[in-house]
Amino acid sequence: MTPAFAPRTADASDAIPVHLLDEGDIEARIAGWRESGQANLADWAEATKFTGKAGQVQVVRAATGQPLAVLAGHGTPATRRRGRFATAGIAAGLPAGTYRLECDLDGPALEEAALGWLLSAYRFDRYKSMPPAEALLLAPDGVDAKRLEILAAAEFLTRDLVNTPASDLGPDALEAALRDLAEAHGAGVSVTAGDQLLTDNFPLIHTVGRAAAQAPRLLDMRWGSEGPTLTLVGKGVCFDTGGLNIKPGTSMGLMKKDMGGAANVMGLASAIMALKLPLRLRVLIPAVENAIDGSAFRPGDILPSRKGLTVEVNNTDAEGRLVLADALALACEEPPEMLISMATLTGAARVAVGPDLAPFYTDDDDLARELSEAGGRMADPVWRLPFWDPYEALIEPETADLDNAPSGGFAGSITAALFLRRFVGEGQRYCHFDIFAWRPTGKPGLPKGGLGQGPRALLHTIERVLLA
């Protein structure tokens, strides 16, 4: 599906007005309606005891039952800080029709309201038919409608990829999805797969994926010929059994989403290309399945890497950092002006910040500040965690250069980020996101399932930092 605003007709007054009303402001609005000859709105608000509480919706109807207007609660500043995309909940409960917002919002708040309405249209209907969203919104004056449609489409792409089970989205299908994205925007794709990974010096990617039915591979997409350079690296573990350190069933059930880093990177790339940003983009995705057969790698193995560092395997379920390591090393052989990695890397990050926040790591304070501000502006919450240098010793075993899973269990997200940083060039502007890419429970505009975490904040930051 392609998220879009309703086509704007010559007379927008034909659209049904949605009055977005703050809690505590109703008495003044009722008085204003009576003074302006809209007694029907005032009567309806009083009869239904409408308060403007967040999530409250009343459809004002004519005697024939035809909807004339909508009263929609926008809550208070305090309740709005506790959630996003209030308009998505409004849209979900409305009858079919074309609507327009009547509100006092502007700037980022108006953009969030319009984007939330678009996101309410998401349906994952590949395996089960679902009714389409029929409450269409006219793009409010003061927003860049095309840009918001592109952002929503990028989010839909990410969600669809994450929601698709591994039976239909293994390394083969992930490669096909990237090729489709590239073809849509005139990008080029090269692939290194199977034993060619060993020939071309990607030993960690090969080792992690060699036990699976579908060959491991490194996907490499390039787009753009002018401007600053940006490289995105996304973890594409299409399913993660845990390898020989096999996960229990309760932990394995969601592992179709272990390619959520790749899905988020692809969503971000789709927005960059659709917006035709003046930069040179590279996307690297190590696409593998961490499976089990006689060739599976083992705890205690010491593995070579593209960068020359050796890695002792203390847990085969810490495989994501291994495939990312080779991809990051490749990325830094042509050092980009900005390097970003995204991965569903650690459960420790979920314990630290829960499922809503996207934690990120960077040594660049200016970049961190821009990202934090962008997260708030773009309704895409992020949170900085530290590259804590004193923990470097935790990833240094006695028998190899690096340990992929330090014992003890403390600071698991930080030690994983430090591990990745070892494969990044000195002085490289780098940011790593340790995301969940999943909603365990649904909310308006944020249904249960696959989720984009960080791409909108990153897009805004890229424009401000690389393209200012």
UniProtKB/TrEMBL annotation:
GO terms of molecular function: manganese ion binding; metalloaminopeptidase activity
PROSITE patterns noted in UniProt: CYTOSOL_AP
GO cellular component term, pick one: cytoplasm
Top-level taxon of the source organism: Bacteria
Pfam family of the protein (one): Peptidase_M17_N_1
SUPFAM superfamilies from the UniProt entry: Macro domain-like, Zn-dependent exopeptidases
InterPro entries: Leucine_aapep/pepB, Macro_dom-like, Peptidase_M17_C, Peptidase_M17_N_1
Keywords on record: Aminopeptidase, Hydrolase, Manganese, Protease
GO-annotated biological processes: proteolysis
Recorded family membership: Belongs to the peptidase M17 family.
UniProt-listed PANTHER family: LEUCINE AMINOPEPTIDASE-RELATED, PEPTIDASE B
Stated name of the protein: Leucyl aminopeptidase
Native organism: Brevirhabdus pacifica
